[in-house]
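Incident review: delayed structure delivery

Summary: a single-chain prediction request sat in the queue longer than the usual turnaround. Root cause was a stuck worker, restarted by the on-call engineer. No data loss occurred. The affected request and its eventual output are reproduced below so the record is complete for anyone auditing the incident later.

Affected input:
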Amino acid sequence: MYLRHTTRKKDGKVHRYWRLVRSVRVGRRVIQQTVAHLGGLDKHGQLEARAFARHLIGEPEQARLFDDGSAHLTVPVRLKGIRVERSRQFGDVYLGLALWRGTGLAQLCEELLPAGKEQVPWEKMAAVLVTARLCEPSRELHIAEDWYRRTALADLLQLKDEHVNKDRLYRALDELLVHKAAIEAHLSQRCGELFAIHNEVLLYDVTSTYFEGQAEANPLAQRGYSRDHRPDCKQVCIALVVTLDGFPLGYEVFPGNTHDSRTLQTMSPRWKPVTACWGACGSPTAAWRAPPTGRGCARRDDATSSARRSPS
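Output delivered after worker restart:
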């Protein structure tokens, strides 16, 4: 299918009229059959004719049989009339999803969080949470109402903006918390394989965060030693285990009135799913800030021996 034109002279002017034709075999002859009369065409009209031919034959390659000049066509643009709409952040979230899949978390969440009656798979919501934590750490409300709508995740995950809200993000956190030990063990093993992380020495510390209000629905919220100088507020203690490079391996939340020296005794048995993945790295040694009392120091020595005897 291609363009043909006929030339006519009228009132001293030359007029060129275009037709869209195709070759048809009739018996032993091949004739040209007119598909459409296009009239006089300028450069823009030739582009429209090409699009029309592509629509008819359904194969854009065949539309290149005629030269419509589009390869060298320039179009004047009024810069004051141009505006950018629906711009999206792409690079950082694309890298975040690549890490999410490269570490095997996407496949792990699909196995741990099988599809049910929910409208959006929990694995996708977990991907949103992890990518947001990597690219722009913020609250779930900010993620749902601002950050997600500025990124290309809607296209990369095939997840519309209206399907991401704070309630669904909070429920995704509840779903992930049930599988906390399995996720920590998987990350410890996978990151050791990818980044050659050695875990002979681990760093352990305890911090706290307090609540404004009574926090009556949270049984872990208790009054205790406040690192934030807010003894009037209830708090929880958070214990964290990291590598020498600062890579987190596991955490645990304790009641706010728990002494630091007692947290390690609770954490040591819970390291077993993680230490089972260390393999050739050897038995770990835990190091942390010494508690202020002599009794606490004795407890620290016992816990250190226990950590060093953990299975490799």
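Verification: Residues 180-195 form the longest helix (16 residues).
Action items: add queue-age alerting; document worker restart procedure.
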